Amino acid sequence: MESSKVIKFLIEIAPVISAIMPLIVILLTGWWVNKRLENMKSRLQLDHSIIGKRAEIYAEIQDDLNNIYSYIKRVGKWKELTPTKILESKRLVDQKFNTTKPYWSENTMNQYEEFMKVCFKTFRGHGKDAGIRASIERYKSLENWNALFNDSFVGGYDEDSLNNINKKLMKALSKDFGIV
Fold first, then answer.
1. Which of 51, 87, 14, 25 is nearest to 179 (CA)?
2. What is the DSSP string of the chain?
3. Among candidates 150, 140, 132, which has minimal Cα distance to 79?
4. Potential cystine with 179: which of 61, 124, 156, 174 (Cβ 3.0-4.6 Å)?
5. What per-residue confidence (pLDDT) applies to 26?
6. Angular region, 156: left φ>0, alpha ψ -120 to 50, beta rest
7. CB–CB of 135/157 below 8 Å?
8. Domain ranges of the chain
9. What pLDDT band is residue 25 in, cutting at 50, 70 and 90?
10. Which among 86, 79, 68 is positioned nearest to 162, based on CA atoms?
11. What is residue 174's predicted lDDT score, i.e. its pLDDT?
12. In the prediction, which pLDDT does 69 show?
């Protein structure tokens, strides 16, 4: 007899349960969707902050990075620059990239390091600056040339490699800015 009372009770409350169940499902689904949207909003705000910081960093180094490329490729205002200025630009850009690594993707850092390898020969000995990978003969006729610049060059210029790595670096930076 006990089981018949339970069955009778369940039959009596079944309409109530069937009426409440969709509401419970809707509430739980709404809570879950809201939670997901809050997480997405937080992530978008973080992404926006990171992209803003990347833009700030890039604004600080874009001219020096362009000076390096322009001087070695011999385009733009390269005639106004000197090896001293190019090596100073390298130091500034290296410092900024290395101190802000957490803001950049692994790909951007790899492309940057490869760009610098194409442009410079480093670790030339104790107390020696990096050497600019360019043919010294192409610079000696400049009005601002100084014989002290002779040791700033190491040769090994490869225009195709320079163009290729510059393109890869710009593409990686664009991707980090959310452009590509």
1. 51
2. -HHHHHHHHHHHHHHHHHHHHHHHHHHHHHHHHHHHHHHHHHHHHHHHHHHHHHHHHHHHHHHHHHHHHHHHHT-TTGGG--HHHHHHHHHHHHHHHHHTGGGS-HHHHHHHHHHHHHHEE---STTPPPEE-S-GGGTTTSTT--GGGGGGB-----HHHHHHHHHHHHHHHHHHTT--
3. 140
4. 174
5. 86
6. left
7. yes
8. 2-176
9. confident
10. 68
11. 95
12. 98
User: According to the model, what pLDDT value does residue 35 have?
Assistant: 83
Among candidates 68, 76, 80, which has minimal Cα distance to 134?
Answer: 68
Does residue 95 carry a pLDDT above 80? yes
Identity (one letter) of the amino acid at 61?
I
pLDDT digits (tens, 9 = 90+) for 158-167: 999 999 999 9
The CB density around residue 95, as the number of other CB atoms within 10 Å, is 11
**Chain mean position to CA 32:** 33
Contact 123, 77 (CB under 8 A): no
**With helix as H, strand as E and coil as C, how does 84-118 read?**
HHHHHHHHHHHHHHHHCHHHCCHHHHHHHHHHHHH
The tokens of 81 are what?
A: 């620059």
| pTM for the structure as a whole | 0.77
